[in-house]
Amino acid sequence: MKNYMIICFCLIIVIAATSILVLTNHSNDKSIEYKTDIEPLVSRFPNIGEINDSYWAADTYGGDFGPTSYWMKGYIKSSHFVGEFHMDLRNGVLYFDVQK
To answer: How far separated are the first and last CA of the chain, in Å rounded?
Structure first.
């Protein structure tokens, strides 16, 4: 019984470590390029208003291509607020946190 529990424990550790490694690596192993241009953000977030500064990144999931297979994240600064955003169209997530 003791050997069985040790084997199960080791198996759980291996599965957990493998899952963490898979989730933390990018599927296509390329570095993410951060951008500062404002126009793509204005077109995706038209109700934000005037954007003074931005720092953001976007990419697609693996080899998928289509209108719902990409994500964006970054920061937006205007004269009224500073906000952090994350948009994940595949999973239906739009997160916007206003910090000012």
So the answer is: 58
Q: What is the pTM of this model?
A: 0.56
**Number of domains comprising the chain:** 1
List the one residue out of 42, 43, 37 whose CA is nearest residue 57: 37
Q: Which domain holds residue 53?
A: 30-98
According to DSSP, residue 69 is labeled: S
Say if 91 falls within a structural domain.
Answer: yes
Q: Is the pLDDT of residue 44 over 70?
A: yes
Q: Tell me the average pLDDT across 83-89.
A: 81
The predicted structure's pLDDT at residue 3: 79
Does residue 75 contact residue 84 with C-beta atoms inside 8 Å?
A: yes
